[in-house]
Amino acid sequence: MSTGLISKDSCLIAPSSLSGEVRVPPSKSQTQRALLFGLLAKGRSVIHYPLHSPDVEAMIQACRQLGAEVITSPSKIEIVGVDGGITAPQQIIDAGNSGQVWRFIGAIAALASQPISLSGDHSILHNRPIRPLIQALHQLGVYAHMHENSLMIRGPIGSGRVEMDGQDSQPVSGMLMAAAFAPGPVEIYVNDPGEKPWVNLTLSWFQRLGISCQAEEFRYYRLEGQSHYEGFSYTVPGDFSSAAFLLAAALITDSELTLSGLDLEDAQGDKRVLGVLEEMGAKLEIGEKISVKRGGTLRGITIDVTDIIDAVPILAVLGCYAAGETHLIGGGMARNKEADRLAAITNELRKMGADIQEESGGLIIRSSQLHGAKVVSHADHRIGMSLTVAALAAMGETQVEGISSIAKSYPDFFDHLRQLGVALP
Q1: What's the pLDDT at 3?
Q2: CATH code: domain of residue 52
């Protein structure tokens, strides 16, 4: 059993074992999409079991600024939409640290004929590429430019043809959303499409709401524009990206635990992590609930992380505890997240004794005995959670700094660790 201390932004944690059952937090990506599609709907939508986090709050505030009425409670969010007719706020929309607000609302802003400005924190302004969206909007007659620390968008968006870079999925999803409400047909040609499951998540919403979209191999889309749909009721499923941290914690500590709240039928691409873990030797029982059993022996494998880019930091941790070598390939986009995740996880795990090598588009991790150290999250929720998990099986105590960032996607992370048996105050 560990002993741990948590301050406002620091956690001291020692080796632990885990047991029990927790409900995985709701999906951040699905909560934010539900809000955005609720904004554009006609009438009232109800979002059940939403994630409550800083990113979601930023999306709620953006929806309000664009004309929606939003009522929040612990168990649901009600939003009265604008039927595609957003209004331009006088104040700048603050994306905070949310890439989805930055790119999705940035695209939706093109539906207005009055200028709309957005800004965000340092990571948003410097680490999260916006140029592919700007260039795409230009091709449909939209004024879109960065002015010092803000993005100004002035529509209205037109119909026509767009060619854009697709390595980052969010500008593509944003353009799809905006094109659905354009005055006429829009064709979108995507070069070098990446992060395809996240685009598929957006397309699953089109299907749910009856929005017509012709899609071919993530390289070509045709939308007819002028979309209208009624408000909806939606229950947010558990987040597979968040579940990966608890699954990894059980695997490296040879513990048993059960996770509930996940929907294997949901379009979230990170559910592929389950198969990756099994390929590495994890003993999982997968059904209505997902359980980790003791006795799995982890082995290093080669993993193409192109479609599970958010799993890079926790897979790096697993690589330290797996026999042999683990190769993560196709991970270049991990450099353009809240932090440069390839560099950040390499630097921090090395402090703990990891034999890890950073490459331009991935990592090579060799079996390592980790030890306690002082490490930092780089203001990145997934780095912070990954380092906390790594500490659960390291020798000695580890101090993780910058844990406040974890609230971005998993506000109850430490409460759940405590519930599973990690001794934290």
Answers
A1: 41
A2: 3.65.10.10
189 vs 171: CA distance, rounded Å: 13
CB 269 within 8 A of CB 281: no
- With respect to residue 424, please indicate whether it lies within any of the assigned structural domains: no
Confidence of residue 1 (pLDDT cuts 50, 70, 90): very low
Residues 10-42 have pLDDT tens digits of 999 989 999 999 999 999 999 999 999 999 999
Q: For every residue of the chain, which 3-state class applies, written as one string?
A: CCCCEECCCEEEECCCCCCCEEECCECHHHHHHHHHHHHHCECEEEEECCCCCHHHHHHHHHHHHCCCEEEECCCEEEEECCCCCCCCCCCCEECCCCHHHHHHHHHHHHHCCCCEEEECCHHHHHHCCCHHHHHHHHCCCCEEEEECCEEEEECCCCCEEEEEECCCHHHHHHHHHHHCCCCCCEEEEEECCCCHHHHHHHHHHHHHHCCCEEEECCCEEEECCCCCCECCEEECCECHHHHHHHHHHHHHCCCCEEEECCCCCCCCHHHHHHHHHHHCCCEEEECCCEEEECCCCCECCEEECCCCHHHHHHHHHHHHCCECEEEEECCHHHHHCCCCHHHHHHHHHHHCCCEEEEECCEEEEECCCCECCEEECCCCHHHHHHHHHHHCCCECCEEEECHHHHHHCCCCHHHHHHHCCCCCC
Q: What is the pTM of this model?
A: 0.93
- 32 and 18 in one domain? no
Q: Which of 310, 340, 380, 412 is catalytic?
A: 310
What is the distance in angstroms between the CA of the first residue and the CA of the last residue of the chain?
A: 13
Higher pLDDT, 29 or 1: 29
Annotation says 310 is catalytic: yes
Domain-embedded: residue 141:
yes
Domain that holds residue 81: 28-235
254-304 pLDDT, tens digit each:
999 999 999 999 999 999 999 999 999 999 999 999 999 998 899 999 999
Pair of tokens at residue 137: 């909007």
How many domains does the chain fold into? 2
